[in-house]
Each structure stands twice: as C-alpha cells, then as structure tokens.
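Box 3.1. Reading complex inputs
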Amino acid sequence: MTANKSEIRLSVQQVRKVYGAATRNEVEAVRSLTFDLHAGEFACLVGPSGSGKTTLLKCIAGLLDPTSGEVVLDSKHVSGPAEGMAVVFQEYSRSLFPWLSVEDNVELPLKTSGVPKAERKARVKEALEAVTLSHAAKSYPWQLSGGMQQRVAIARAVASNPSVLLMDEPFAAVDAQTRGELEDLVREVWKRLDMTILFVTHDIDESVYLAERVLVLSSSPTIVQADIHIDLPDVRSQADTRSLHRFGELRHQVYEEVQFAKTNPGGERMTAHDGLHA
Amino acid sequence: MIVLKRLGMWLGLPVILIGIWWAATAQGTNFFVPKPDKLATTFISVWFSEKFFTDVVPSMGRLLISLAVSLVLGVALGIAIGLSRTLRWLLEPLLEFIRAVPSTILIPVLLLLIGINDTMKITVIVLGCLWPVLLNTIEGVRSLDEVLKNTALVYRLRGFDRIRYLVLPGASPLIMAGIRHSLAVGLILLVVSEMFASTDGIGYSIINFQNRIAIPEMWSGIFLLGIIGVLLSVVFQAIQKRVLGWYYGLKEASNDG
C-alpha cells in the first residue's frame, strides 16, 4: 500500500438515507454527510446514540444503498460491498464463522478472492502475528474469550489488505480492561500495516485516545457537526496519554459537541458561531 | 470402567425386559407369543441364511437409495427455496398441503402409475422422507444469522462459495435434525411399501410368515427391524458428532458464558 498521505481513499459525498421513502412512515436517518478520508488516516465517528452511525457505516460498506449522494472508494463509486473495504462488526461472536478454525476464518476471504495458497498462508500468519494470536490458529472462535474473538475479526480484516478498514463499535461489548488492550492493539496494527481506518464509537474517550481526527455527528437526521483534529503525541499509552492536559481539553471539546448534538437534531446552531468552536 | 458403565446403562433395561418376558412366558403356552430362547434360535436360523441376501439386502438397498435421494433433493430444493423470498411465498402453502397427505395413501395410486417394482417403493419412501429434510433446510437457511450474512456480503462470498462456506454449514444443525427424522419415517415406509405389493424384502417376509402362521418367524422379522433401527441411529449419531462438532462446542461455550 502506498503511503501518500494526501491521496483520498474514501470520499463520502452528501450521503442521505431515508427509510420508507415516499410512505407515511418516512424516517430521515441521515440528512447529508460529506467528508473525505485520506490514505493512512485514523478517524473516529462519534455521535449520540440514535445518530445514524450504523446506518452510515452500512452505506459506506455497501450493505445499504444511500437514498442520494454517493460513496467513493479509491475513485470508484461504491454500489454493494466493494473490494478494498473490510469491516469489523461489534458482534464478534456472530461475525466469525463458528464452523471454521481461527486460521480458516482469517483465510476464507483470501481463498474466495483467489489469492494463491502460498501467499494466503503467509498473509494469515502475518495477520495473526499482528494481533498476537499465532498460538490460537487451530482453535475455534468459540473456544476463545470475547477480546480474542474480536482480535480474530481484526486479523481477518487486515489480512485482506483493505484500502479502508471500517470498525463498527468493535469494543462496545468487551470489558474495560480488554478494551484498553484492544485499543492499543488497533493503533499498533494501524501503524505497523499503514492502514486507513474509520472507527465508529459512542465513547468520547475512546475516540480521542485512538484517532488523529474525530468527526462528531449530530443526532438524527445526521450531518457532520464538527471535525476535530487530535494533536496528541503519535506514541500513545493508556496511562500517560489519558492523563495529559491536552487529552482533557480535547475530550472536553468533543464532549461539548456531543452534548450539543443530543439537543439539536440536524445539527442546526441557534446562532452562528455560538462559541463552541472558539 | 466408564465404558463398562455406559454399556451397562445401554443394555440394562433391555436385559430386565427380556427377563420379565422370560418369566411371563416360562410356563405359558400362548401360541402367539414365543419364548425368548425360541425367538433367538428362530432369528438366527431365519435371517442368517440366504434370506439375508434375498430379502434384507434388497430392503436395505431401497432404504439407503431413498434416503440418499431425499437428502440430495431436500437440501438442494431447501437451499433454493430458503434463499428466495419469492419462491418461499409461492411454494410454502403448496408444500404444507403435499406434506399433509400421508405418502402411504399414495401407494395404490403409484402402483397403478409405476407398477410393482423398486421405483414404486423408492418413490413412496422418498415422498415421506423428503419433507423433514426439505422443511428443515428451508428453515435453517431462512434463519441464518444477520451479522454472519453481512460478514459474508462484506467479504464478497458469492454464488457457490456463499453456499459452501455460509449457507450449508449454517443450516447444518437443522438439516441433521431433519435427516434424523427421515431415518425413522423411512424405515416405516420401507416396511409398509413392501407389505403391499412385493416379492421380497423384510416387510414382505413378515406378512408372508403371518399368512403361513409361522409365529416365531414373524416375530423374528419385527425384531430384525428393531435392530436395523438401532444400527441406523448409531451410525447417524457418529456422523452427526463429526459434522456438528463445532455446533455442540459452540452451545457448550455459550452455556458456560
């Protein structure tokens, strides 16, 4: 993968999603979302619950068709699940194939997309090493703890060498300690394999800790309400980074935006520049 | 020790029942109920003879062919119907109707249409065995996990790959339950179809012995069917354990959690 940082990997252009369009039960879930994701970027999407995060992610992944607007991956229009896109779902236990061993789970997408066997084996090995699960290659997913299962799902996603890795609240269902470990692991994998990641979460601390950039969504109907650059040091650790003064400031800033989003559907400001961005 | 204990649990109740039967018939002279020892010697002399090749082998052949046909047809049709909402909507009322008609009732009709031959018997058995496999396959395919289906979509599992790696294994617990049901139905239909119009087979032999008032011989045929039923079940469970190993592990793991 080339690391030209200015290259746009993923472009979301005025995506709008209306459920039950032209019926009485019409619900506008996403109003108009526009943002670009550059190569090598790690961005978090944060929003209050019910802000259409999952809907948006499904539109980007090609699992849902947007009502209007478009998603462009590597300069190609996305219609249906696209090559070059991998997804890690929140429900790890339901996202791994229980009838396949860990290594077979990681290998399957490579196998069905026709990667030669020798290369497949090498990539599976590398991916399992990246998530430190080489010792569990022959186990079945259900023999592993929740955190380990999610690491298998991450390994499967990175093994397919995606242009963009989408993660849908991947750590919402694991305990706090495991969660910290997995956060560090994702940053580690991101740097090691030079990935481009879009990470959806409702956890403000998590978004600030992980990302280089946090996009705050308004509540439904959704727009991008704020785009915050996270200028924390590149090397992060759970103990040190979270106690930095700057971390607190950024956390406060994102928190304020999310609070604002909760009370203002569609992200409309009462008055222009009411101080939140000052 | 564990093996002995399990064997004891397996054989315990049959041994007790045979004991009771023995005691009840010890001084009895009921013509229609043979004593256990008489039945055992009759069983050996009747079935360990050329009758094994002229009657047992043809019967088992019919049963196995019918089960194989039911399995292939049931799973193939079940996957097609389970994957297509339109097909399900079109076919489900019809399937319920056909399933409700007992296939034994079709024997006279099939006799006229097909004649007295193996095809007729196999048709009767398939018409009964197909339903548990077909309906369970449809249900298994329909109830595939949503997240797992999305995962398969995201990783672009299409066509045959999708069936091989997602649909078939995902539906396999229900498919196996359907096959288990089919085994029991198949054995019943085999005997019934052979009783109607046949010149060989276990069902034919039992009716023939009854007509000739060969009572212990008739009982020995019934006993043979019981043994075949047990053997089929043992073989099936061994296969099921292999095919669904992941499923039992998964269930155990989620019970622990």
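In summary: Residues 80 and 155 of chain B are 22 Å apart (CA to CA).
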